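To the team - EPZ complex, inputs and output below.
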Amino acid sequence: MAKIVISGGVPLNGEVWISGAKNAVLPILAATLLADEPMSIGNVPHLHDVTTTMELLGQMGVQLVLDERMKIHVDSRQARHWVAPYDLVKTMRASILVLGPLVAKYGSADVSLPGGCAIGSRPVDQHIRGLQALGAKVSVENGYIRARADRLKGAHIVMDMVTVTGTENILMAATLARGTTVIENAAQEPEVVDLARCLLAMGAQISGIGTSTLVIDGVERLHGAHYEVQPDRIETGTFLVAGAITSGRVLAKRTRSDNMQAVLQKLEECGAEINTGADFIEIDMKGRRPRAVNIDTAPYPAFPTDMQAQFAALNCVAEGVGVITENVFENRFMHIQELQRLGADIRVDGARAIIHGVTEMTGAPIMATDLRASACLVLAGLVAKGDTSVDRVYHIDRGYECIEEKLSGLGARIRRLAN
Ligand code: EPZ
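Output:
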């Protein structure tokens, strides 16, 4: 398996261009199944998860062309095979996002159960419950979710907990339902907002976007549109932490700061100087060692769970003690034992990781277990003395476009070794 080797100790300094948001482009690609006309999507990141989603849609009969400017042209009018098979779903849980659009548009969907993953059991009961509320007949058999419906009808749904893709599935399904759907306790993540805005461009009628109550008036059809995906706030945050952990200066371009205030606040708490503009965020540590911060993950607009591992790495070399509490997923500390191999002083107590900052970590061979854990380990390698090799980097390629090129551009000594 490919690995990434980092020779730590270099304060990063430079400019990095942020790509389109993975967790926005995936539901937006699923939403193209709802359109009666061709569509195009811009600012698409070059990620393995995007390739997987294109493969999944292609298997259904959707025609997709990726042009040289990372724009995807999609025509779903020939979609006939309304199935998401296990061999694809097992590699990317977000495949479940085709469930709502297929049932709403074609009245039929056979989607493999995603199964668990490294960070948790990841049930999908809210997705199923929501579609049943909209009138779909849903059964789970032989590892597949089988959903059938004549025409969905609007309903008043209160989510049992905040779920991002659960909200997205029901939102997409409701756009073609007969009547009005209200989704209460909806996720407010910026990626849900991006999906909703794309659906509006396609002719959907949605209000309450960005709030915890979405109201959707179903329409007969959705037309084509062009939609530019928003910048990836988690990739942005990851590169800002790279600047903080190395006591350097990073200018993130083609991004935005209005949807990541919780992260910027924590970076300022750790001693960073943050400067923002319409399409950039700059972090400057002025050569100072970061101070430890306490983190409590929760749904947006609170601190995002997808930035938890990156701040765990930061706390490992920060001044003082930082407590990280993971409230969203039940097993999102897989990176901790790998950080301990680099000399980090961390104690896990249930959902909390208590981290005593050390003045130096030393490089070692370590292993990635999931997407954000792998980013955390690369960040730790940037500051650990000597060489750190991160194995199983296929995890990182799912969510970060050309991460070693981007980090090299900031001055990091980093290279990828094939198998
Ligand atoms: C989305 O996953 C993101 N993925 C995740 O990003 C992110 O960590 C997560 O939201 C939380 O922000 C995409 O958008 C493709 P949830 P999702 O449903 O929707 C429980 C990354 O690194 N739950 O919001 O699967 C669930 O177990 C990935 O980019 C149920 O119990 O997460 C969890 O504890 C990792 N039943 C909590 O809700 C359900 O039916 C939140 O999960 C659904 C969820």
